[in-house]
Amino acid sequence: MSASQPVVDALVPLAAWIPDIVKPDPRRPPRLAEKVLHTVVALFLFLVCSQLPLWGVKRLQGADPFLYARQIMASSRGTLMELGIGPVVTAGMLMQLLRGSRLLLFDFSIPRDRAEHKGLTNLLALTITLGQALAYVLSGMYGSVFDLGALKALAIVAQLVCAGLVVVVLDEVLTDYGVASGISLFTCTNICESVVWKALSPHTVQRDTGTQFEGAAVAAVAGVLTERDPVRALKNAFYRAHAPNLQSLLATAVVVAAVVFLQGLRQELPVEERTKSAGVTGGSRQDPLKIRLFYTSTMPIILQSALVSNLYFLSQLLWSRFGASGGAAASVLAVFGRWEQSARGGFRPTGGLMYYLSPPAGPGEALRFPVHTLAYTAFMIASCAMFSYLWIEVSGQTPRDVYNQMRVRNTRLYRVRDDAAAQIKALSRPIVTAAQLGGCAVALLTISADLLGAVGSGTGILLAVNIIHDVFDKYDQEVRAGLTSARY
Questions:
Q1: Residue 261: how many CB atoms within 10 A of its CB?
Q2: What are the tens digits of pLDDT across the range 131-170?
Q3: Element spanning 413, H or E
Q4: What H or E segment, with its residue span, contains residue 349?
């Protein structure tokens, strides 16, 4: 790291106070059984924290301002996981931007730089957690600060900061000792829980037509078996608007099938062993290098969701404080975003920049407001493609990084001149194309799921399927490598 960074040098000792996880011994990586055990325990602790209510909160004020972002950020309103993974994702994104702009210089080949980068990222995550916790309390989300009192207000902030520290630690445990990164698994767990609950929830809701089950599948079966007109009951289960319906479940299944199909699209580059003898053209053929369409997996949509969620939070906070009362301030803030409470219990943007960055509420609204639909589609495609391209630059997946990994394994691309420039040039086209097209495909799938009315959100479904696919892919790679059979 550059020595001319006094601010960073001053923050490193503070970051050292944050609890850290000891890295596994590279000579003895965790066995599969150990990874599964660590994953189950960490996810159980996360789910417990998602159910524990915040002490000092008597009632939640008004509609949920983050209803549409909670699945992606793995947050649960009024609990210890109120902030979810939002601060951790935002901190990681900011550190990557600082590195990409060369405001911070780290050499990841040096263990000390890697440790300092991780410590500063965790410190930034806790700082963001503290800032968001204070904003939540001061904005009146848990009631007036005067009604809460200083003790309860400080206690709520302290609980949220401690919960943020738990998320940081659990994320490191899962990254080093689990089957996947904590950020991905927390999001996937939250999304899968929501989909299963909306399909099989046994809770009942009172409607004009009588008592109905909340779960779409349970309501359909109960209606067909108990009502006098089974056809009418089945039709109601398909099209009811006040609760999850079978149409949404079918849309979810279609999106899942599309994601699974696109996961299988890849380009295989032939690889051979690099020979050391002069005059020899190549060595034995190796397993091909597979460049998947989703080369950067779910990171583009996670980064895009984190960016939009923070913009939503800032816009709603400003509008609730200064915009609703009218006047000159409202006219200025309306350009950024104007908000109104929706029928689903949350807030939706109805004007300004935030309106065009939010998805239309179904195919009907998409057709009625084509400018909104086109603006949202263009923003999603452009932002996901950009984040996907940037992610390969900061995550060690560039063509040069892949070439260096092949050199370590003593391999090279088949029938390509064995020098760095030729090998990197041959890798650049498929990798960069996959990153950009994959980002566009992620955006289009998300938009399609939102318009079809899939359960949860298009972003959530896409994340869940990609994460589950990546977990099984890593498991398959480990089995193929013989690690599991060698240790059992």
A1: 9
A2: 989 988 887 778 777 878 888 889 999 999 999 999 988 8
A3: strand 411-413
A4: strand 347-351
Establish if 305 belongs to a structural domain: yes
pLDDT tens across 27-56, in order?
Answer: 777 877 788 888 889 888 988 888 888 888
Residue 62 has pLDDT above 60, yes or no: no
Mean pLDDT confidence for 320-338? 75
pLDDT exceeds 70 at position 66: no
Please report whether residue 81 resides in a domain.
Answer: yes
- Identify the bridge partners of residue 266 per DSSP, sorted by sequence position: 292
Cα 38 to Cα 347: distance, rounded to the nearest angstrom = 38
CATH of the domain at 406: 1.10.3370.10
227, amino acid identity = E
3-state SS string over 244-283?
A: CCHHHHHHHHHHHHHHHHHHCCEEEEEEEECCCCCCCCCC
Number of C-beta neighbours around residue 118 at 10 A: 18
Using the predicted structure, report yes or no on whether residue 177 has a pLDDT greater than 80.
Answer: yes
Same domain, 124 and 272: no
Measured distance CA(335)–CA(327) in Å, rounded: 14
Q: List b or e across 84-110, with b for residues whose CB sees 16 or more CB atoms inside 10 angstroms.
A: bbbbbbbbbbebbebbeeeebebeeee
- Res. 488: pLDDT tops 50: no
| DSSP 8-state assignment for residue 447 | H
Model pTM above 0.85: no
Q: In the Cβ-directed half-sphere of 244, how many Cα atoms lie within 13 Å?
A: 27
Q: How many Cβ atoms are within 10 Å of 302's Cβ, its own excluded?
A: 26
Read off the pLDDT band of 345 (50, 70, 90): low
- The Cα 278–Cα 118 span in angstroms is 44
Q: Give the integer Cα–Cα distance in Å for 106 and 83.
A: 29
Domain final residue pick, 201, 220, 245:
201
Highest mean pLDDT among 28-37, 325-334, 378-387: 378-387
CA distance 450 to 301: 14
Domain that holds residue 64: 1-201
